[in-house]
Description:
The chain has helices spanning about 1-25, 30-50, 55-80, 90-110, 115-140.
Amino acid sequence: MVRWSVLLFCTMFLVWGDTAAVLAEKNPEKRSALALDQAEADLDAARAAYSEGSIPRFRELCENTAKMVELTYQSLDESGKKARKSPKWFKRAEQHLIVLMRRIESLSRDVSLEDRDVVEQLRQRASAVQDKVLQDIMSKK
């Protein structure tokens, strides 16, 4: 019992530390890539927390995953670059979001009905960001 609480505390510290590192990045394009990497790590940790039966931790990590995905778009928007003229970071974000959406759908199939609403909210938020990135890439503005 004590080992699990120590492990949980260490995991929480590592996730918070990584989130702080993402927010500390000055370059908005690099911040968007770091946020997506952190979102993937949080999704892995959420799956592990669910497998261990730590439902509050699972919910917290799903929320953090959604925040990191939203930070990705916010950072790309802050860069001031147009996706049509400088598509590099936007295309990377789009490709990572496609993979992340597949992983979220897989997680949705693996959780119980009681916890599926949390994953569904995450899926909706990630899908909205994916749609915005794709719209920016495809728009002529």
